[in-house]
């Protein structure tokens, strides 16, 4: 019996039987029966009043249902072969696989631990039962029926059943008075239509399939007109808040026009197809991609986003600043550089301005609109490329990872268009116009795709010049003229130059500056995750195999080979981006690429070369692999949520009420809100309206919140790694230096990226031009010419407004003591120091650093009614106040442990040679050692617990700015563990080392380069006196060698 059918049909039958078996298990497990216990037994079952009856039945139910479906279906396929209609069996198998796709997607998601929702079993099982029943009974009566038409009939029934819910969506967007009971009634009516429609269609199809076929176009017309209403879900639902009650997003009329336009577009396409194809015999042509995309919106893009403000000001800021900066006059990629390109970073913000009120609270909602619209362009592109609505649907539904992937899909499908390939001159003309758009949209990936597609451009240009009538040159001429005019009258030439420079400059350092090694992930032993997110590596070999087999084709070989070759090259170009950062325990960039490769690139490679049945198998692969990555929500919960009249929100805050109108009304974390409002008050008190500041915290969203334009194109120091970009930024700052720089404010330091190490050129500028000051929890930098400071003036402190049983507003209730708010200053206050408060002079009698408390010998002066204005002046020793300022700088820009940076840089000493210049050899400056016995030149036996070498610099006239890189050759003999080294230095009035003037790092055999210039306490010394190198874990080495010690200075060339 089985031998008479193909492997394709057998595969589909097994999949169908598996789903029917899973359905049977689900039904049996849902059976509730009264528990029956044979004795007074205590166990989990009796504690929970449960039973094992359904568990025992589940496995037999699966076995027999699987077997029964398998036998019946195989027998049916054999009958169709007997009546000489084997092609119908293949079509029937294809329908089984198509209706199995939801189940296969859900099953695949189990790989990453996502549960399999019941509807992903029920819907496929109902579809397979429907198709199989009709197909089987028609085979018995030897009636001919097309399985494809049966599948479309069931689709029509399902989409018609959604009409009550689609009507409710419209009502929910225009009225706030709908009750929950009304919602339940609409759901009940929809389910009733689905169930009745299912059985009526089943019975009617068995009774009169000819009439059913005639009704299909009309049923599709009705159902698809309803689907067009899903575009209404792009309009945001009402938001119910606990503190402000019912609220809604402030939308513009343009959003209304957009939604109405999409609805009319879908309706027009549905009606057009109905009129054109109702009697054509090909029912599938009646399916409108625009209407079907409405359903996809309901499944993927329909849920209104809450007005969240992310606490991650770095990434959130990347999406807020671009479009806002352009509206203030900045030129994209010149005055402001979007880190990921216009599409990913700026398009949602543009939509926020066009369709909403432009505040930060609308960002995620406008990003939802951006995803839906770009998803539509990609969906239509795939549909036009393949002619398959199903392929386009599953590809866009499963695709994740950002707007850029929708955007790139549009160009690939356009450049691979068969219609465009018919005219080579037109192809070149279109490529000339679209390639710059691809680059400016997403520069890193855009440049890759344009370079890869240049093969196509060369081919079409060559064909036009040598094989086509060259008199048909006008498309190329028109495109060239348009480009020339655009370059002349717009800044697009500067934009292109800026985008290319940014990619080239960052490309050289991207792996080191942002990379995470794969080993970090592999050490976690999450084997399934690694397989899933690295599964994309299978597709480039598939492309190569395809190229190998296509090379023997004798008809239009280049037309088949070149697109595949372009996609292969494009995938190769994406490898550095993809493997550059592999975050542990998340899909990360490899998972994003896997999603794109499986859902988009694989069908672009294979679709045009496959037979119909293999196209179905390809969709099975796409569905299974695309779903395994976990971007898509494999449930109807989102579709159900789109019917909700309200979305429920945590308490919201009003930005306008607190002077932060750019935030809007939003959900903001309390600590984040406190920090933002405090910073805004500080800036408003120290800057004029319209003045900007320099934010060095990498919290670049703060520029937008504070309504102050960024002074430099790359707004987050974390992204400002290339020296050329730092030089550009510093040149702009020198020409118009901001009055204030924000040094420290809960800085974002991804990958340990302190300013002094990651941005040395910018750091030196800041060190030269700004003086630090602690204010209300922040460390600000004031321009030196605006902020005069001397030891006679002192340093201002402020009371910490705490009140408890001992303190009232920062003053002790019973003693002459206060609590200050500056955790840095308290470290340097000493007994005997002088404070001036409201004209009274106080002397310190006691200091409690842990509690930020200071006691005085004198009685505290009168306190003003407004406690927040009470400030006192600390006048300590000159050395103490100097150390306090250096403490502020160190806390803002540096760290005291360099870990393995000296080893890493030392290994690259040869390539870094041109980046530094020698100041002085220091081997001859060695004057002393401790717990070390020299056994030969530069080699020492470790003889104690505190081994170190001392170098005298007192006779050399140089400062910390004259050189900041200590380079030496280090060897640890008989190493038992990683040697830990510490360098101490001293200068100016200091005659000996101290812990503050030191840095720790891990030592390794070979050259070490220690960047002491990344430490303000080194850089600010005017006369260096000496330094020592200490092995802090003396047991790590039995002997050590330190030689070729030299001082270098960075060269910023």
Automatic annotation (TrEMBL):
Key words, A-Z: Membrane, Transmembrane, Transmembrane helix
N-terminal signal peptide: none
Transmembrane segments: 12-36, 56-75, 96-114, 120-138, 150-171, 186-206, 218-241, 253-271, 373-399, 405-421, 428-443, 449-466, 473-494, 527-549, 561-579, 591-609, 616-636
Keyword check for Lipid metabolism: no
Name of this chain's protein: Uncharacterized protein
Organism of provenance: Legionella sainthelensi
């Amino acid at each position: 019996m089985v031998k008479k059918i193909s492997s394709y049909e057998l595969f589909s039958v097994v999949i169908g039987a598996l789903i029917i078996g899973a359905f049977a298990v689900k039904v049996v497990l849902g059976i509730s029966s009264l528990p029956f216990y044979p004795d007074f037994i205590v166990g989990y079952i009796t504690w929970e009043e449960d039973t094992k009856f359904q568990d025992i039945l589940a496995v037999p139910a699966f076995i027999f249902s699987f077997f029964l479906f398998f036998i019946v279906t195989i027998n049916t396929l054999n009958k169709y072969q007997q009546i000489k209609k084997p092609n119908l069996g293949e079509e029937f198998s294809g329908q089984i696989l198509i209706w199995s796709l939801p189940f296969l997607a859900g099953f695949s998601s189990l790989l990453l631990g996502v549960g399999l929702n019941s509807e992903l079993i029920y819907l496929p099982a109902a579809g397979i039962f429907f198709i199989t029943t009709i197909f089987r009974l028609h085979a018995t009566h030897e009636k001919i029926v097309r399985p494809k038409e049966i599948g479309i009939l069931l689709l029509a029934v399902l989409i018609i059943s959604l009409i009550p819910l689609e009507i409710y969506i419209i009502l929910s967007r225009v009225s706030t008075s709908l009750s929950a009971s009304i919602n339940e009634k609409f759901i009940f009516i929809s389910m009733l239509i689905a169930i009745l429609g299912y059985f009526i269609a089943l019975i009617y199809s068995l009774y009169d399939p000819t009439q059913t076929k005639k009704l299909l176009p009309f049923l599709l017309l009705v159902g698809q007109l309803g689907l067009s209403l899903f575009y209404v879900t792009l309009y945001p639902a009402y938001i119910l808040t606990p503190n402000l009650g019912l609220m809604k997003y402030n939308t513009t009329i343009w959003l209304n026009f957009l939604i109405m336009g999409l609805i009319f577009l879908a309706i027009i396409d549905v009606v057009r197809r109905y009129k054109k194809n109702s009697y054509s015999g090909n029912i599938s042509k009646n399916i409108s991609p625009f209407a079907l995309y409405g359903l996809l919106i309901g499944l993927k893009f329909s849920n209104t986003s809450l007005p969240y403000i992310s606490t991650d000001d770095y990434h959130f800021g990347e999406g807020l600043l671009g479009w806002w900066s352009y509206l203030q006059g900045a030129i994209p990629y010149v005055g402001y550089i979007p880190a990921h390109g216009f599409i990913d970073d700026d398009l949602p913000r543009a939509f926020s301005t066009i369709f909403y009120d432009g505040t930060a609270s609308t960002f995620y909602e406008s990003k939802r609109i951006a995803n839906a619209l770009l998803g539509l362009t990609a969906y239509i592109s795939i549909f036009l490329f393949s002619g398959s609505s199903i392929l386009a649907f599953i590809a866009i539904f499963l695709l994740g990872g950002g707007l850029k992937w929708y955007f790139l899909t549009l160009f690939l499908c356009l450049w691979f268009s068969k219609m465009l390939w018919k005219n080579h001159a037109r192809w070149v003309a279109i490529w000339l116009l679209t390639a710059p758009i691809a680059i400016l949209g997403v520069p890193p990936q855009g440049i890759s795709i344009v370079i890869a597609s240049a093969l196509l451009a060369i081919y079409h240009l060559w064909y036009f010049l040598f094989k086509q009538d060259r008199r048909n040159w006008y498309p190329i001429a028109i495109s060239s003229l348009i480009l020339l005019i655009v370059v002349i009258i717009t800044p697009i030439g500067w934009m292109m130059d800026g985008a290319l420079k940014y990619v080239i400059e960052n490309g050289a350092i991207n792996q080191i500056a942002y990379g995470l090694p794969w080993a970090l992930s592999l050490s976690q032993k999450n084997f399934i995750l690694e397989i899933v997110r690295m599964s994309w590596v299978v597709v480039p070999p598939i492309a190569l195999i395809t190229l190998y087999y296509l090379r023997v084709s004798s008809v239009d070989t280049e037309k088949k080979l070149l697109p595949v070759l372009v996609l292969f090259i494009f995938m190769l170009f994406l490898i550095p981006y993809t493997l550059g950062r592999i975050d542990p325990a998340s899909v990360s960039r490899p998972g994003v690429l896997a999603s794109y490769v499986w859902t988009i690139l694989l069908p672009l490679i294979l679709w045009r070369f496959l037979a119909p049945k293999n196209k179905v198998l390809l969709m099975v692969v796409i569905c299974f692999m695309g779903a395994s990555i976990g971007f898509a929500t494999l449930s109807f919960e989102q579709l159900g949520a789109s019917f909700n009249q309200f979305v429920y929100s945590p308490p919201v805050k009003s930005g306008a009420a607190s002077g932060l109108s750019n935030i809007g009304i939003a959900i903001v974390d309390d600590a984040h809100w406190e920090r933002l409002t405090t910073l805004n008050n500080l800036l408003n008190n120290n800057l004029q309206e319209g003045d900007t500041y320099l934010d060095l915290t990498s919290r670049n969203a703060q520029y937008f919140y504070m309504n102050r334009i960024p002074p430099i194109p790359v707004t987050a120091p974390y992204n400002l790694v290339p020296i050329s970009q730092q030089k550009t930024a510093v040149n702009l700052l020198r020409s118009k230096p901001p009055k204030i720089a924000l040094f420290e404010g809960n800085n974002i330091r991804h990958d340990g990226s302190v300013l002094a190490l990651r941005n040395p050129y910018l750091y030196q500028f800041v060190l030269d031009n700004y003086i630090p000051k602690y204010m209300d929890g922040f460390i600000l930098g004031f321009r030196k010419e605006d902020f005069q400071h001397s030891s006679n003036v002192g340093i201002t402190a402020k009371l910490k407004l705490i009140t408890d049983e001992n303190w009232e507003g920062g003053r002790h209730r019973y003693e002459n003591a206060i609590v200050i708010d500056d955790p840095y200053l308290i470290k340097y206050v000493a007994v005997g120091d002088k404070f001036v408060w409201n004209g009274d002079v106080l002397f310190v009698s006691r200091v409690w650093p842990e509690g930020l408390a200071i006691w005085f010998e004198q009685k505290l002066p009168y306190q003003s009614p407004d406690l927040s204005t009470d400030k006192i002046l600390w006048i300590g020793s000159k050395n103490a106040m100097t150390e306090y300022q250096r403490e502020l700088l160190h806390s803002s820009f540096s760290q005291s442990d360099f870990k393995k940076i000296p080893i890493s840089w030392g290994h690259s000493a040869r390539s870094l040679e041109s980046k530094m210049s020698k100041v002085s050899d220091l081997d001859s400056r060695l004057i002393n050692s401790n717990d070390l016995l020299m056994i030969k030149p530069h080699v020492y036996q470790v003889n104690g617990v505190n081994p170190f070498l001392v170098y005298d610099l007192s006779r050399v006239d140089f400062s910390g700015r004259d050189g900041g890189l200590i380079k030496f050759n280090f060897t640890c003999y008989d190493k038992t563990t990683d040697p830990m080294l510490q360098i101490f230095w001293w200068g100016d009035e200091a005659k000996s080392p101290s812990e503050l003037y030191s840095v720790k790092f891990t030592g390794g055999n070979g050259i070490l380069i220690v960047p002491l210039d990344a430490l303000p306490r080194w850089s600010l010394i005017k006369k260096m006196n000496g330094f020592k190198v200490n092995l802090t874990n003396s047991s790590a080495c039995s002997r050590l060698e330190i030689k070729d010690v030299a001082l270098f200075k960075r060269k910023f060339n």
